[in-house]
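Re: weekly structure request thread

Next one in the queue (169 aa):
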Amino acid sequence: MDFSTEFVALRDRMLAGQDKAFVSNQNAEIAGRVAAMLSTFDLSAERKLFGLMPTGNSGHAHEYRLLFAVPALDEALLQDWWQYARSAERELVRPDRNHDFSIVSLILAVGAVEKNALKSLKKLNAEREFKNGQSGWSSVRMAVIDLSAHKVHTNRMGDPLKNILNPFL
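Done, posted below.
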């Protein structure tokens, strides 16, 4: 397997096949690292009481998907990427009083991955609830795409991400 070729093909399939509501950029710098792809989804909607009556306020929600190439992933490097994901979440998520939620999805396409790293991946979890003039919550999802085995592995919050990514393999 030629990792570079496989990675570029995956990125191109993801760009072509993702939901049209996402806006994508290639080679976007986020929190000091350059993502091969950054896709963002923003939703603003009027809030309704019991889903029926308008309240006069609006809310907003966001998802950010960041794709990186990682030729080989071990447990120590996974922890480094996890810390990066938390930094990216702090940079990307801008809560205010109308913020509903934000999801940051870090996607690592790897050529080789150690089993211990996959065990550690399952345990990773990060959620924040906002208070004091800010509202809503944010969550970090992480997916590891093993290009050699054609499998997607995720942390606990990332199971929905697995369903999104599997068709691109």
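The helical segments are 3-17, 75-92, 115-123, 159-165. The chain is about 30% helix and 45% strand.
Next request, please.
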